[in-house]
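User: quick one
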Amino acid sequence: MINRLCEKIKKLNAPVVVGLDPMLSYVPEHVVKRSLSEYGETLAGAADAIWQFNKEIVDSIWDLIPAVKPQVAMYEQFGVEGMKAYQKTVDYCHEKGLLVIGDVKRGDIGSTSAAYAAGHLGKVQVGSCLLSAFNEDFATVNPYLGTDGVKPFVDVCREERKGLFILVKTSNPSSGEFQDRLIDGRPLYEWVGEQVAAWGGTCMGETYSYIGAVVGATYPEMGKELRKLMPKSFILVPGYGAQGGKAEDLVHYFNEDGLGAIVNSSRGIIAAHKKEAYARFGAEHFGEASRQAVVDMIEDIRGALNAQLC
Amino acid sequence: MINRLCEKIKKLNAPVVVGLDPMLSYVPEHVVKRSLSEYGETLAGAADAIWQFNKEIVDSIWDLIPAVKPQVAMYEQFGVEGMKAYQKTVDYCHEKGLLVIGDVKRGDIGSTSAAYAAGHLGKVQVGSCLLSAFNEDFATVNPYLGTDGVKPFVDVCREERKGLFILVKTSNPSSGEFQDRLIDGRPLYEWVGEQVAAWGGTCMGETYSYIGAVVGATYPEMGKELRKLMPKSFILVPGYGAQGGKAEDLVHYFNEDGLGAIVNSSRGIIAAHKKEAYARFGAEHFGEASRQAVVDMIEDIRGALNAQLC
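Assistant: Done. Structure below.
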């Protein structure tokens, strides 16, 4: 999948992923109303609203981008009905040819991580059948439990040719509370980054490893260091746009081949119709607003990368 | 919920929680066969098998213990169908009067953690209704993202009088890889433990805080230190039995009031029928084997605690 991700990024000239994190408050009223009038004010109604919202956004942007990143929490909050909407979203994005990064941030002791890995990236054995469940192409993983909590994910990736993005330095304001603490003179996130590079060395794609990292756009200096520390790891970069990350800050997350990073925007794209810059589209045309926001984001990132090359 | 947990532990004299982590390989053949013949070799068939298995175990042990701890990964691996079995299990345990610790190990940036917290412990707003989704009583949380990733969970706990167990020192062999690294002379898990105590100070129950910690049974010396560092935090102790933790090692996880810790066993209880010690029950009577294993575990823990008091 990492090879496919590289190909798609090059073909589209767009190292960009759209986060499908549909808060109900982002969904235009006419969509919510339609779903709730069909299913009532229920979890099924809410789940249908976010699914209809996603579908229209995906229909509007699928040809511009290599991948989407649904944040499972936004579905899980609606329980089983929400998880159905998550599954539908993953499947629909696959139909549209998009790669899917399941932003699940799972991680546990070995046997438990193996179950998560099977359910999200691999297959489970039921009787004589091997079955896929959620079947994303990539998943995000939390490293706090160390190698034996991560290895089952790595093993499944090797087998299924899928990929991971492991949390190294997250984009949130208090990420430094533990991640920045110095251990033998170096911050924890660097030790984690070094392990990501080591884990990644065991399953390489053509140029990049199957095992990537998450490094927030909001900490560009750290991103620059981590880029050097993990030269073969793709970096998934959250925090662009709504969280404050700027394109010119992100050039150092990339390698000289113009690859090595993929920048995520969630709210900035899917809730574009709520922003002044795209208000002209109106809530009825929220898909078109998202499309324009994707076009603008790609331009912004391309511009920064080109400026860097000159 | 922490008050109810304390009451139930005292009433039953059993600081024990059973992990409902149903690997399909633990489920006796006659149960699997019945489910697969009804639903085919499908995810629905597998999910039905683990649900039927859980139900019989819960029916056999509910009166002995204060709480259960379903590990969501074991359900999530079967996709949406598995999540239905998870929800059924949570609801059924509630019907039986058991407290439910959702072992979900979630944790993300603030807005995302808020969605997880709403879905697992709180309520979501849909139209004019406030609805519960999974509705566990406690959840486990990963601290790697720091305060703003944990706070939304704490806020929901305060509002709903529910509880958390935050990963401090996990039971797995490589937990030390990051958790034991020294920061200003003290291991990371102590810094996390100190934060757990601070977060917990903001929402106290009668004697213990709503905010507890996870400390593995496999690291008793660290458990002893952490007990002192977080005097008001209940400690959820995984790793007893199958992972190697022994009752006599666990006495220091408790406070002098005989409370302050709850010891989990998963495999050792739910797969008891596969152990030599309980083979006499036979696979047909796996529920009775589990009951006997719970009785023995409670005796074992009580014995160690009493020996300590003498």
